[in-house]
Amino acid sequence: MKSFEASELTIGQVHNYLQHAIAPRPIALVSTIDRAGKVNLSPFSFFNLFSANPPVIIFSPSRRVKDNTTKHTLENLYEVRECVVNIVDYNLVFKVNQASAEYEKGVNEFIEAGLTELASIHIKPPRVAESPVQLECTVQHIMPLGKGPGAGNLVIAEVKTMHFRDDLLDELGKPMQEKFDQVARLGGDWYCRTTDLFKLPKPI
Ligand SMILES: Cc1cc2nc3c(=O)[nH]c(=O)nc-3n(C[C@H](O)[C@H](O)[C@H](O)COP(=O)(O)O)c2cc1C
């Protein structure tokens, strides 16, 4: 085994080792608006489900390593505490990558990536029409994890409304995992796809 003290590595090295190790990570494609109503769309793989009652998800827009500035998604969430978390499947991932480029504040990544805005039912930020599952959320807490470059900001959001594409559900309305075709982020430029599924019944 090789052992590393996090405190002796650069931010980039810590990020890289942990991104390879803590993988695969699901991808939240997050739509937000600023107080003037300008739309932003960006992906985050520091993302997961943490509670069902209340239904809570968490994702983390980090401070940029190059200049310690904050991401537009985070700035928008301080202004308008609502977001849509759009789930990413294989068909969508190429446009998601395009949406992740560093655009000027105020640029609408729906347009840059060629994605379609779909009005949400209860909140102001739009959904991504091409996404198989869209979660309308309200932001409960934003918790900065540090002040330096690379520091995460935990966004703790409650899911209010869930939209599932029809073909993902059986006739009883239950989700069929094999239909979702999600992708996930790993280390560096690696991604994976949920095409190697298996079932493991719970122990009695
Ligand atoms: C698949 C994927 C996952 C990403 N995950 C994160 C993440 O968890 N946290 C983060 O700060 N940036 C992440 N990024 C980079 C952001 O998407 C990128 O910095 C984006 O430009 C931020 O946009 P914004 O400033 O408009 O919010 C990810 C990029 C990709 C392609």
Strand order, main sheet: write it out: 3-2-6-9-10-5-4
Domain count: 1
Task: Specify the structural class.
Answer: alpha+beta
Count every beta strand, where a strand is a DSSP E run of 2 or more residues: 12
The helicity comes to: 10-25%
Shape: globular
Low-confidence stretches: none
Rg is: 17 Å
Q: Determine the strand fraction and express it as a percent band.
A: 25-35%
Report the major sheet. Answer: 7 strands, antiparallel
> What small ligands are held by the chains?
flavin mononucleotide
**CATH architecture grouping:** Roll
Instruction: Fill in the CATH topology.
Output: Pnp Oxidase, Chain A
User: How widely separated are the two ends?
Assistant: 36 Å
* CATH structural class: Mainly Beta
Average pLDDT, rounded to a whole number, is: 98
Order of secondary-structure elements: HEEEEEHEHHEEEEEE
Name of the CATH homologous superfamily:
Electron Transport, Fmn-binding Protein, Chain A
**DSSP helical segment count:** 4
Descriptive key words:
204 residues; alpha+beta; Pnp Oxidase, Chain A; 7-stranded antiparallel beta sheet; 3-stranded antiparallel beta sheet; binds flavin mononucleotide
